[in-house]
Every structure is written in structure tokens, then in C-alpha cells.
What we know:
With 189 residues, the chain is α+β, with helices and mostly antiparallel strands. The chain is built from six helices and five strands; from the N terminus they run αβαβααβαβαβ. It has a domain at 10-50 and 87-166: NADH Oxidase, CATH 3.40.109. Strands 1, 2, 3, 4 and 5 form a five-stranded antiparallel beta sheet that branches. Helix 2 (23-33) packs antiparallel against helix 5 (106-126). The structure holds flavin mononucleotide. Flavin mononucleotide binds at residues 11-12, 132-136, 158, 169, 172.
Amino acid sequence: MxxxxxxxxxxSALKLTDPAPDQAALEQMMxxxxxxxxxxxxRPWRFIALRGEARDRFGDVLVETxxxxxxxxxxxxxxxxxxxxxxxxxxxxxxxxxxxxxKIPEIxxxxxxxxxxxxxxxxxxxxxxGAMWRTGDSAxxxxxxxxxxxxxxxxxxxxxxxxxxxxxxMPPKGMEEVPVLSEWTGxxx
Length: 189
Ligand SMILES: Cc1cc2nc3c(=O)[nH]c(=O)nc-3n(C[C@H](O)[C@H](O)[C@H](O)COP(=O)(O)O)c2cc1C
């Protein structure tokens, strides 16, 4: 796929099935991540792959931590939470491991991880795979971070669901009405 078409035609895949990106594809995706703009070249991004039965175990973690956050949670919500990791054959947990730095504020490091994550998604798309970036309350839960071997001060920037798109994506509507580009010619009055 042409690079510009890959970017301008990208959409999120709402339903994902096998095949997931194989090891060679994953390595290319990590190569793409490593070319994200990154102030100070701190390389704050980490990607944790969850697949196969690990997704069931992660579902258990999601339920356990959900129940701690909300002891009165109803059964349907519990079932929904447990099923989340099964929405795709592969999940990459995108993590920002930031460093204390006088020169490079944490926000810049987290934004760099966002850029790396988008590079991963675009690389997946270019190779014919589908992807969707999700978060939710669990991404901000220290219990989830602990289960993933992370530190409370690490940031889960997203869960990138990956596989093969099972249904055609929906092109965004009305974007042309949003004035995303403007021109500055001098200080505002
Ligand atoms: C940081 C971040 C977190 C997101 N979390 C969710 C989420 O939890 N659930 C969801 O449905 N979409 C989430 N999205 C949005 C989807 O990934 C997607 O971009 C959106 O549904 C629009 O679809 P499109 O990418 O095809 O334009 C998130 C996006 C970002 C950048």
C-alpha cells in the first residue's frame, strides 16, 4: 500500500479475528515504533504482547481489579470485562516508561509513546492487519499495572487490539467540516 494512502485511509477495526500479525510482522511494527519522534531519544515506549491463554488470564486480572474499584458491579459488567481481551487474537499493551528529566517533561515522553503507538498501528495497517486502540478505567488501575509487571508510575497509553479485520471499517464522517488547519499571521488582538 502507498504510504500516504495507508495513513489517509486508516480506520479502526471494530471486530478482529485470526490471523494476528506473526513474529516477523511484530518486529516490523516495533521497528516502526522506534522511528517515532522522541525528545532526547529516551525511548519511553514498551509494548507487552498478550495472546492465546494469556488473554484469559488478563481477563481474570480485569475482573479482579474491576471488583476492587467497584465492589457492587453487576454480573453483566463482570462478564463484559472478562471478555474484553478476547476481542482480538493479539493485544499490545502500549506503555510509557518515563524518566525524571529537567529538560524533557513527562507529557512529551507520553506523547512520544502515542506517536510510537500510532506508528505500530499504521505499520499493521500497511501489512494488511486491522487494529484498534482502546483504553478504559483498567488502563489507569495500579492493580492492572502490577499484574503486567509495571510500576504505578508507568502509564498505560493504550491497548492495541490486533488481528484481521472481520468487517469493513467505517470511514469517519464530517471530518472535512472540522477546521483542523488554520493560519496564524500575527499576535491575536
Ligand atoms: C488514547 C486513546 C484511547 C481510546 N480508547 C478507546 C476506548 O476505550 N474505546 C473505544 O471505543 N475507542 C477508543 N479510542 C478511539 C478508537 O481507537 C478509534 O480511534 C475511534 O473509535 C474512531 O475510529 P477511527 O480510528 O476508525 O476513526 C481511543 C483512542 C485513543 C487515541
